[in-house]
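Postdoc handover notes: sequence design on the structure in folder B. Input tokens:
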């Protein structure tokens, strides 16, 4: 048995359970409930997908370091839920003490379903109220109550995993908080606060903010508390008369204090209770903060800041374009170097390729022990991004440096067609971006027997997400179609074929995703000029190996025209690229900072 698991079991067995009721009130210790299981989630106190090293509790207890996963530990078992992206990784990283719960696969229960089926009367599931969102807690309480079990909380600041981790747990380092100027944000803090409050006044007199990206955007600040994410550990309370930022005081310099002049409190300070009503997002807010707000004052709604943040102002839009142009130039140079190196016989690993890429921009952590080699025999996936003052890029490119198989060409061509369809789609008032892109995979195009178990699991996970998000928008025949097309795949199903649109995948370089249209009920107006969207993306070699000659020529013409539109006065060079006995001119832009 793992020493860590043994220590955790002893620790949660000794908890004095504080019961969480259906209204998410944390009640006094119960002498009835017995803690039978401990939930360890991936998120931090702000619901972040990417967390600091100090908050990697799920990684510490399980050894699995994928970005998504939930651990549940009982007195005699340990379970790890993750989605199809990480099945292979989890299989390699989990010890024999753990059971991998493959999300989305047939007969694999969700965490909530497991709680309902396995906890009995008097049993309790322990959570940390600082690390569990209100929405998640409600689902768990509902599931537990069906078996007359309960959900209980550890004391604030007494996380069971932290107690076992002890001195080995990384310390929280005060962030180097920076102010992001209006030349990059396009709006002052005062303007943003005013806009947010105008909308908030319709619902409440105050807003509690817990999501780190919402806070960074609203206050025009950036930090380094989470690696590769420019955020600051903070909470915020915005009222009609003031804005209070709860942050580590060590992170504040005189320049920062002078920046926005809002009221500053310690990071762990309590939330004031003297306002008439407080707006809170149950999907983002943790149970501890939520329970600190008197029930009579709570008003729940999706993040108002998120709505404003999603609509970019002209400065932000230009910053995104500029960042992607600079980053795209770096990417093109990188892939040119990569093909030259690999085809000349140099030994290139994923890590050495990454280090070369860092000559153009900072990148992700490296692991020499588990990285693969980049060769001419298989696809190479590069999933990367960079932080610039005027924008952030998140770029995934899949290329083949040798001779791809017919299957790989087929898959790549389908995803290219999907991207072209998306780029030329006109957005009407009835349609949103997600309702165009989040759609069932066509089951008639590829024989399901060609898919690996991992790929089938990914498709099933994706379909479960599609079904959950689109079902409320559909009715009648459209709903029946959705339910039929998103049922789990079956190797023995005559209708068990899927389209495999190769975009990117962490393990098998084949990820299924199709883009088609569905008839939807109106969802409200969407800001649009009614015209097809124009995308300022960059085209990275060597794509011609994965496309037909006609498709490649059309794409090259479109990309070259886009580049010419952006760089009418800049020096560009034409890089002659040969593939499939086809010579095409591909413009490489010498982008200037």
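Designed sequence:
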């Amino acid at each position: 048995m793992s020493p860590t698991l043994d220590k955790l079991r002893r620790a949660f067995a000794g908890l004095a359970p504080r019961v969480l009721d259906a209204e998410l009130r944390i009640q006094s210790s119960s002498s009835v409930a017995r803690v039978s299981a401990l939930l360890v989630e991936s998120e931090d106190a702000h619901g972040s997908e990417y967390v600091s090293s100090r908050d990697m509790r799920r990684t510490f207890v399980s050894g699995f370091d994928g970005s998504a996963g939930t651990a549940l530990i009982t007195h005699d078992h340990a379970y790890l839920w993750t989605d199809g992206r990480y099945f292979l990784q989890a299989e390699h990283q989990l010890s024999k003490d753990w059971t991998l719960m493959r999300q989305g696969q047939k007969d694999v229960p969700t965490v909530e379903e497991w709680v309902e089926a396995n906890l009995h009367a008097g049993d309790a599931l322990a959570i940390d109220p600082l690390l569990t969102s209100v929405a998640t807690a409600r689902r768990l309480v509902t599931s537990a109550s069906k078996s007359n079990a309960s959900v209980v909380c550890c004391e604030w600041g007494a996380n069971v995993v932290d107690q076992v981790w002890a001195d080995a747990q990384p310390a929280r380092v005060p962030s180097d908080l920076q102010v992001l100027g209006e030349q990059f944000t396009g709006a002052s803090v005062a303007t943003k606060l005013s806009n947010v409050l105008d909308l908030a006044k319709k619902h409440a007199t105050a807003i509690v903010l817990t999501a780190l990206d919402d806070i960074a955007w609203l206050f025009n600040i950036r930090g380094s508390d989470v690696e590769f994410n420019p955020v600051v550990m903070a909470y915020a309370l915005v009222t009609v008369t003031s804005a209070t930022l709860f942050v580590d005081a060590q992170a504040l310099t005189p320049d920062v204090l002078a920046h926005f002049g809002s009221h500053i409190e310690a990071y762990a300070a309590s939330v004031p209770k003297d306002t008439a009503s407080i707006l809170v997002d149950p999907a983002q807010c943790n149970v501890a903060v939520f329970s600190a707000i008197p029930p009579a004052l709570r008003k729940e709604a999706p993040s108002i800041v998120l709505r404003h943040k999603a609509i970019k102002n002209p400065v932000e839009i230009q910053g995104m374009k500029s960042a992607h142009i600079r980053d795209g130039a770096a990417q093109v140079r990188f892939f040119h170097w990569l093909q030259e190196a690999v085809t000349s016989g140099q030994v290139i690993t994923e890590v050495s390729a990454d280090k070369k890429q860092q000559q153009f921009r900072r990148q992700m952590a490296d692991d020499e022990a588990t990285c693969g080699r980049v060769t001419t025999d298989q696809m190479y996936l590069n999933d990367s991004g960079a932080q610039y003052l005027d924008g952030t890029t998140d770029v995934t490119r899949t290329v083949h440096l040798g001779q791809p198989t017919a299957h790989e060409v087929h898959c790549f061509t389908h995803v290219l067609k999907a991207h072209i369809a998306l780029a030329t789609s006109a957005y009407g008032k009835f349609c949103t971006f997600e309702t165009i892109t989040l759609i069932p995979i066509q089951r008639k195009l590829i024989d399901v027997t060609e898919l690996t178990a991992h790929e089938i699991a990914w498709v099933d996970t994706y379909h479960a997400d599609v079904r959950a998000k689109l079902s409320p928008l559909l009715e009648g025949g459209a709903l029946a179609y959705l339910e039929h097309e998103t049922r789990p795949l079956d190797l023995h199903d005559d209708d068990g074929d899927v389209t495999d649109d190769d975009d990117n995948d962490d393990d098998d370089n084949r990820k299924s995703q199709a883009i088609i249209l569905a008839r939807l009920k109106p969802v409200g107006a969407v800001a649009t000029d009614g015209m097809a969207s124009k995308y300022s993306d960059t085209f990275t070699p060597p794509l011609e190996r994965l496309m037909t000659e006609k498709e490649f020529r059309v794409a090259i013409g479109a990309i070259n025209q886009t580049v010419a539109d952006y760089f009418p006065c800049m020096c560009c060079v034409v890089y002659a690229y040969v593939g499939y006995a086809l010579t095409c001119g591909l413009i490489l832009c010498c982008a200037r900072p």
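Context for whoever picks this up: The first helix runs from residue 3 to 13. Don't rerun without checking with the PI first.
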